[in-house]
Amino acid sequence: MYDERLLVPMRADLTEVGFRELRTAAEVDEALRNSPGTALVLVNSVCGCSARMARPAARIAIRHPRRPDHLFTVFAGQDAEATERARSYFTGYPPSSPSFAILRDGQLVWMMERRQIEGRPAEDVAADLVAAFEGVGS
After folding, report:
1. Considering 32, 49, 57, 129, which one is annotated as catalytic?
2. Catalytic residue among 17, 46, 47, 136
3. Residue 17 CA to chain centroid, in angstroms?
4. Residue 103 in 3-state DSSP?
5. Which residues pair with 110 in a beta bridge?
6. Deepest of 9, 84, 98, 108, by most Cβ within 10 A of its Cβ?
7. Buried b / exposed e across 42-64, counting CB within 10 Å, b at 16+?
8. Is the pTM above the cut of 0.90?
């Protein structure tokens, strides 16, 4: 667990552009089971590839006119219960942070793992997200 004061700007990077933080398993279940349509879930983290690629990519991608209906985030390494529950929806994928998942009506339809994020410019990651938004519809 990290000092929460350290995480304030990392959380705000997403919440200030419309992501809803899910901090408990119950919040994850409520959000993913009861949000019809598409949902983007960003597994946030302290690591450098979250700061340099994932969070900026998310901020860029959600400006696209065709984006998921719902934007959610969980924080790996901090909100462990929520992160574990969110990952339980990402069937077939090992834990990865940062990572992006798109769900339709609570079912996983697209996933981007850390290995597909790290070392790439945020703009390239954002382009992959936009392509996924268009591919799965909203």
Report:
1. 49
2. 47
3. 13
4. strand
5. 102
6. 98
7. bbbbbbebbbbbbbbbbbbbbee
8. yes
Q: Catalytic site residue 30?
A: no
- pLDDT (tens digit, 9 = 90+) per residue, 58-107? 999 999 999 999 999 999 999 999 999 999 999 999 999 999 999 999 99
Q: Which pair of tokens denotes residue 62?
A: 């959600």
Domains of the chain, by residue range, sit at 4-136
Nearest residue to 22 (alpha-carbon basis) of 58, 75, 94: 75
Q: 98 Cβ partners below 8 Å, 6+ apart?
A: 42, 43, 44, 45, 47, 49, 50, 53, 54, 55, 76, 114, 117
In whole angstroms, give the CA distance from residue 102 to residue 111.
6
Place of tokens 């934007």: 71
- At 5 the pLDDT is 85
Q: Is 47 a catalytic residue?
A: yes
